[in-house]
Amino acid sequence: MKPFEDITVSELMLQRPPFVFVDRLLYCDEHRAETEFLVGPESVFVLDGALREGGLIEHMAQSCAVLTGYVAKYIRYRPVSIGYLGAVKKLDVRRLPKVGERLLTEVSVIEEFFSIFMALVEVKDSKGELIASAIIKTASQPE
Amino acid sequence: MDYNQIEEKVRSFLVEELEIDENKISPDARLAEDLGIDSLEVVDVVVMVESEFGFKMKPEDFKSLKTFSQFCTFVHERTQ
Fold first, then answer.
1. Contact (CB<8Å) B40/A110
2. Cβ contacts (< 8 Å) between B43 and chain A: which residues?
3. 3-class DSSP state of A109
4. CB B11, CB B5: distance < 8 Å
5. pLDDT in tens for each of the 143 residues of chain A?
6. Cα separations (Å) of B53 from A6, A14, A114, B10, B29?
7. What CA–CA distances, in Å, run from B7 to A67, A134, B1, B64?
8. How far apart are CA A138 and CA B42, in angstroms?
9. Which helix (H) or strand (E) holds A130?
10. Which end of chain A is less crowded, N or C, counting CB atoms within 10 A of the terminal residue's CB?
11. Cα-Cα-Cα-Cα dihedral of B34, B26, B17, A89, to 10°?
12. Strand, helix or coil at B5?
């Protein structure tokens, strides 16, 4: 299996710059994933030196997309399908991350049913402090 | 767990988690058309059934479950 450091997120999800909010996949299996994202000054959704809520949600959704893409491609040997953000529940934003901060995000799968995927997503800073969390639901386009 | 207890748990879930108007919930209320449970919320139902009643639903289970009472009866039968 390909080492995580050799995997680019562009092979796991269909979003392309400048609308990419995940830099790297650090770990992934069928139940959980860890992603990384550096908040850059040119990032979409950065305003007044901080990533706004919309960017945080997009980062969480894309972290889910990376997990489902990895599972499809490297575990189930299926094509990476188009995914849609279906719902965001129990969103808790503790603070807005500043430009230059590195986000370390854990996706924990709650349920996968048909083509609907539900996960708890926790975004932390490099000190391990929680920045935001939510339950994210995504829907995949059937093959 | 008897039928009434199951019905109460399901009703609470629909109201508290899916934010469905309690007044719309009746035995004959249709899950999709009347209560507005869509495909995205079905996954919440699956998670609730597994955590509250201890079994995992399959996609085909939903084909024959059209109303609130049918759903509660299904859960009741599966938990006996």
1. no
2. 111, 113-114, 116-118, 137
3. strand
4. no
5. 789 999 999 999 988 999 999 999 999 999 999 999 999 999 999 999 999 999 999 999 999 999 999 999 999 999 998 889 999 999 999 999 999 999 999 999 999 998 899 999 999 999 999 999 999 999 987 66
6. 43, 38, 20, 10, 22
7. 36, 29, 10, 18
8. 13
9. strand A130-140
10. N
11. 0
12. helix
Which pair of tokens denotes residue A47? 């305003």
A121 bridge partner residues: A107, A134
The CATH code of the domain at B3-78 is 1.10.1200.10
Whole-number Å distance between alpha carbons of B46 and B63: 14
Instruction: List the single best residue of B18, B40, B50, B52 to mutate versus A (max A Cβ within 10 A).
Output: B40
For residue A15, the one-letter residue type is Q
Give the pLDDT confidence of A46-56 residue by residue, as tens digits.
Answer: 999 999 999 99
pLDDT in tens, B20-39: 999 999 999 999 999 999 98
